[in-house]
Design goal:
This is Cytochrome-c peroxidase. Keywords: Heme, Iron, Metal-binding, Oxidoreductase, Peroxidase, Signal. Helix content is about 25%, strand content about 10%. The protein has 11 helices and 8 strands. The strands form 4 sheets. The chain has a two-stranded antiparallel sheet. Strands 3-4 form a two-stranded antiparallel sheet.
Length: about 400
């Protein structure tokens, strides 16, 4: 009797020998190309847990909007995310600009593409699922994450399937992937058909990216033990609790935009406990361009403040769309003195109280306290968890 093995097709080949009829059985593995390519990194019969990860009960935001995370879909998304075949010259993948070691961000100011560099600094991809803001890119030009996932692939400078400047169109990528054995098996595995479409690619990539979550920080340990956000966290130092209160409390301004009391108002744009950007936020006062003249006031989106730095305090790359901010001290300092730059008609109203650029008059202890708090937002698992790692053997 043949032992039944899950997900293995058994084919009976009948033949006659003399006067006796018998049967020979050949086991055909439908995942042979997956196994040959990824080895133990992907086991279709024992997938990593993407769909049922633990989410703290105080996290209430979710922008999944129907494309629910499945273990199968996120596994396909992981392969697509790390596969350099998605670029026109097989040199760039999504992970080239969004590196696990840097909280899925980039340490370079501008990331390298197939035909140059990106026009803006690559945004970290931490907790993208847990936000009120559903639009993506710094200028929010993508209406949702699904749409965003294939836009870099169709960009001439980034991944090169633009259909312009001598590039193949996106249909060329679909033809390319359709001729790769492991994609035939993966799309069959996930969707019940080998057919590859842009929509299926978008769904899988979005599932993988939304699965990347970070809730094992010092902040999360404290929040789990507190009745509410404003209560002092028992695991925090006095400085960290002071920084938390400064972060949460709104400032008090006089008639000319000078802070006379209260906190720093950071939560007005980065509300706890997700610390993502408020959808109605305007420009934050950074209006430059990377290696280009003129100003850019359209940048109103931002990644979550979680995992700005690693636990050891080193940064996960520069901050802001221009990468002009490289330390937490500089980031806090930027908001301490907001200048009304000529041409910035999109400056967030919260940064120009009573029509004046805010002057927080930060003290050194306040700056150090807020930095100490921001460091509590970093976890450890996101940097090492194998389910978010490169599935292709080195």
């Amino acid at each position: 009797m043949l032992k039944k093995i899950a997900a293995v097709v058994v084919v009976a080949l009948s033949y006659s020998c003399g006067s006796d009829d018998s049967s020979e059985y050949v086991e055909i593995d439908p995942y042979a190309n997956i196994t040959a390519t990824f080895g133990s990194n992907i086991n279709p019969n024992n997938l990593a847990n993407y769909a049922n990860q633990t989410i703290p009960n105080y996290i209430t935001k979710d922008n999944t909007a129907g494309n629910f995370i499945t273990d199968k879909g996120a596994t396909l998304g992981r392969v697509l995310f790390y596969d350099k075949n998605l670029s026109s010259n097989n040199t760039i993948s999504c992970s080239s600009c969004h590196q696990q070691a840097n909280a899925f961000g980039d340490t370079s100011i501008a990331s390298t593409g197939v035909n140059g560099t990106t026009g803006r600094h690559s945004m970290r991809l931490i907790n993208t699922r847990f936000a009120n803001e559903v639009r993506f890119f710094w200028d929010e030009r993508a209406v949702n994450l699904e749409t965003q996932t294939t836009m870099p692939i169709k960009d001439h400078g980034e991944m090169g399937f633009s259909g312009t400047n001598g590039d193949e169109p996106f249909s060329g990528l679909i033809t390319k992937l359709s001729n790769i054995g492991y994609y035939k098996e993966l799309f069959q595995f996930v969707y019940g058909s080998e057919e590859i479409t842009e929509g299926k690619i978008q769904l899988a990539l979005a599932q993988f990216i939304r699965s990347i979550q970070s809730f094992d920080s010092k902040y999360d340990v404290g929040r789990a033990q507190a009745a509410n956000e404003g209560q002092p966290f028992v695991n925090f130092t006095p400085q960290e609790n002071q920084g938390k209160q400064l972060f949460l409390a709104p400032p008090v301004f006089d008639a000319t935009g000078n802070r006379t009391g209260g906190g720093l108002g950071c939560a007005g744009c980065h509300a706890a406990p997700e610390f993502d950007i408020n959808p109605i936020s305007g420009n934050n006062g950074i209006i430059g361009r990377i290696n280009a003249p003129g100003i850019d006031i359209t940048n109103t989106r931002a990644p979550s403040l979680r995992d700005l730095v690693k636990v050891d305090g080193t940064t996960n790359g520069p901050m802001m769309h221009t990468g002009v901010i490289t330390t937490l001290q500089a980031a806090v300092g930027h908001y301490g003195t907001i200048n009304l730059a000529p041409g910035n008609t999109n400056l967030d109203v919260k940064l120009r109280p009573n029509g004046f650029g805010q002057q927080l008059h930060l003290t050194a202890p306040e700056v150090n306290a807020v930095i100490a708090f921001l460091r509590t937002l970093s976890g450890t698992n996101v940097y090492t968890d194998p389910k978010w790692a490169n599935p292709f053997p080195n």
